[in-house]
Structures are given as structure tokens and as C-alpha cells.
């Protein structure tokens, strides 16, 4: 169901890889709500994914960009505003990658070159993106910038590895840069802390299936899906949340406030 919440609004969506991606679902929902946007991802991700299919479906253009490269980001913002016909109203940062996780390096034995690369891609890219948007004055007043995060930024999830540190840094950037974006440009900046979601990136975490099952049993409403996250993002892009900013917003079925659930207790009780 569409409510035309984003009619006339323009933006950039980072990170759509395939139909399992939260960014992909968000792009579909933005399109349904009347918004227009450009899609972007790193050149290697564009080759691996199916983004052309999404672009065709949503009548969007694709601009390749390495989100760690300032020249790429400047080109992206310039082209996006040119293609879309004006300043931007929304930006979704849905980027995350840990080489240590991919290569099976334990948290206590990291390859620090890989750590730095993952940090740059997963967290610092958010600062770089906002820096370009801020300096180019590319956002309309009451625009909205959203990045996706996970609760491992606050609590220990052993196999989430250095991605937990990256997400903590990402959330801090949202607050710190969000202050200046709000004060100087009247732009909102928030993060959504999403349930574990079976995306292509998420499935790379060791023990992910058990992880999802546990979170689901711990959450009174069950895990939030990718489409749930997309719908929440739409509300943050809309004018209905004009003074929501600097927040880390949990979209996790209640998981973040549950100490233990009946379902989990039952799993450990002797029969």
C-alpha cells in the first residue's frame, strides 16, 4: 500500500546488491511512495549483484562509486543532483564489510590492514559521504540521512568480529555529524539498528542461522524483516519525522530490551 509519503522527494540509495538487500527493498518502497533516486554501489559490487534489474524496475539511474573515495563521492553527488533535477531530500547508507570476517580471522588475531579497510568501508565512508553532502550544500532543509547498524555496537556478539567496532563508530558519526547537519542545514541524521537479517552480507557471519533463530526467540514480535526495515526507513525519509535526529532507532521486534524470554528458558529446561 502506498501513501505518497515521498512524492516529489529525491535521493541517493547506497548498497543495493540483490533482492535480499535492505537497500534493495528500501529502493522499491521509495519508488512506491513516489520518490525518485539514483542507485550507487562500488564497481565490484555492481558486477556481482543484480542492480540493473532494480534500476529498470524503479526507473532509476546507476552511478558507480567507491564510498571510501572522495572524488567518487563528489562525482556521485554532482551527478545525482543533475540527474534528479535539484538538491536531495534523503540518503540511505547501507554499506558494511569486514575482510577479517570474510577471511575467518578471529577478533583477537586481526589482520590490521583488513581491519582498517573494513572500518573505512563500513564507518568512515558515512563521514565522507556526509562531508561531501554538507560542503556541497546538496541536501534540502528537513532532508533525512539514514545509516543501517546492528546491536553488536552495544553488546558482545563474538562472531560479529570487528564489524561490531565499525558499527559503534558509525553510530557515533551519525550523532556527531548529525549535530552540525541539524544546526547548520536543518537536516536529520539517524541510524536504524536492525534485527539480524538474511542478506548476502549477513550470511557471511559465522553461525548466522543460529543467531537469527536465537534473536527471533528473544523478540516478543519476532525479528524485523528487510521489508520492515525498508518501511521504517520510509517514515524517516518522510515529513512525518521532521524533528527525529541523532537517534539510534531499534527495529528489532523488542530484542534490545529483553533480558531473557520464555522461549529461550524453555530451550534450556530439563524435560
Give a description of the structure.
The chain has a single domain, classed as NAD(P)-binding Rossmann-like Domain (Rossmann fold). With 271 residues, the chain is α/β, with parallel strands linked by helices. The protein is globular, with a radius of gyration of 18 Å. It has ten helices and seven strands.
Main attributes?
7-stranded parallel sheet; Rossmann fold; globular; alpha/beta; 271 residues; 10 helices
Short description:
By secondary structure, the protein is of the alpha/beta class. The chain is built from ten helices and seven strands.
Uncertain regions spanning at least 5 consecutive residues: none
Count of strand segments: 7
CATH superfamily placement = NAD(P)-binding Rossmann-like Domain
Q: What share of the residues lie within helices? A: 40-55%
Tell me the Rg in angstroms. Answer: 18 Å
| Main beta-sheet annotation | 7 strands, parallel
Number of domains: 1
| CATH hierarchy, class | Alpha Beta
Continuous helix count: 10
List the SSEs and their pairings:
Layout: E1 10-14, H1 22-32, E2 36-40, H2 43-48, H3 51-58, E3 61-62, H4 70-84, E4 88-93, H5 99-102, H6 112-135, E5 139-149, H7 163-185, E6 188-194, H8 208-218, H9 226-237, E7 248-251, H10 262-268
Parallel strand pairs: 1-2, 1-4, 2-3, 4-5, 5-6, 6-7
Helix pairs in contact: 1-3, 1-9, 4-6, 6-7
